[in-house]
Amino acid sequence: DDSSAPARFELQEDPSFWKDNNVQVVIRVRPLSSSEISVQGDKRCVRQDSGQSITWTCHPESRFTFDLVADEHITQESLFKVAGVPMVENCMAGYNSCMFAYGQTGSGKTHTMLGDIENGTRGNNENCGMTPRVFEHLFLRIQKEKEIRRDEKLSFTCKCSFLEIYNEQILDLLNPNATNLQLREDAKRGMHVENLTEHEVSNAREALQQLIEGAANRKVASTNMNRASSRSHSVFTCLIESKWESQGIKHHRFSHLNLVDLAGSERQKSSGAEGERLKEASNINKSLSTLGHVITSLIAVSNKKSQHVPYRDSKLTFLLQDSLGGNSKTTIIANISPSSCCAAETLSTLKFAQRAKHIRINEDASGDVLSMRLEIQHLKKELSRLQGQSGF
Ligand code: ADP
Ligand code: MG
């Protein structure tokens, strides 16, 4: 049956990917799995209409439009080029950046964010996911920037941390003995996790080592505590500090790059659950529903209908508040299964992603900040040229 076979849409590397908005929403459709085929054959619940739009084909049909719809033929490398490269570029330009993988368990979140990390990008390993590719590009860009701006004595330090939020508790994946860490906010560091391990890394290989170690600890922790890692969120953070001098002025800047693998978005059943399981179910619902509320409030704020964003209502949103809204760039990769077995969850993910698409926060302000920076750079150059001319 030809109508069920997905059409192919190639991804374009689009330099204007971030042009209009601080939030970009990508849908990634994974291939049908063999178990789905054995249950439902190849019956699908979605049809891709273009590189930006997708239709949920059950009743009533609903069509959705996003910044990008990536079908099952899209490789890890091309997804990285379209969504990952601009993220690193934004980070180099001083924005806090955050990428979330959202979707039901089994929809491809971990495949997208990590993929085969053991081999990294060695030998052009196609299965290597977003995070190791981001590391490589980040360090390439750092190297290049240092060469270009040698006159300004540009230097970088990059520190990595890796944590898990389970049951509204923060665990340090780089130090499994540290559990129930606390969030703190102060003037110097902003929002941070107290006593969280931060390893300085000087290249992509060292960053990848931290990722591999943390991912292994996550597996051990979930086995020991008898729970699936699909019920926790993981957050890998690169804290990038840069220093440079220009016209005798010392500059100092911090930016965060967060890569987040969210808990499965399927509704957690609290009926029948008791004790720890019940608490767990309601806590998972809490951080994902708070993420939803934060998004709704950001839409209201951008429409000037509200001021309040409930970041504090969950650990996840409180931790990431600087990366959601304000001077930050967020990418949401909403992962879906194309199988009609998953139609209901797929629709719920498409609706979540659709709401996220409506955030238009601070777009003027951040545009202003960037253009003001450029303006200042230009004026400084002009000033030194004039100073040179008039000899003072
Ligand atoms: P999640 O983290 O959302 O629970 P996974 O990333 O573990 O889901 O994916 C479930 C299974 O589907 C894994 O075996 C994974 O390798 C496979 N898979 C997911 N996305 C893709 C894709 N785009 N291409 C090929 N296989 C995929
Ligand atoms: Mg996973």
Verbal overview:
- This is Kinesin-like protein.
- GO terms for molecular function: ATP binding; microtubule binding; microtubule motor activity.
- One of its GO terms (biological process) is microtubule-based movement.
- One of its GO terms (cellular component) is microtubule.
- The protein is of the alpha/beta class and 392 residues long.
- The protein contains nine helices and 14 strands.
- It has helices at 34-40, 76-92, 109-113, 130-148, 204-224, 275-302, 315-319, 343-357, 363-390; strands at 23-29, 46-48, 53-56, 62-65, 68-70, 96-102, 155-166, 169-172, 183-186, 190-193, 199-201, 233-246, 249-261, 328-336.
- Strands 1, 5, 6, 7, 8, 11, 12, 13 and 14 form a nine-stranded mixed beta sheet that branches. The chain has a three-stranded antiparallel beta sheet with strand order 2-3-4, with helices on one face.
- A hairpin with a 3-residue loop joins strand 9 and strand 10.
- Residues 30-31, 33, 72, 103, 105-111, 230, 335 line the site of adenosine-5'-diphosphate.
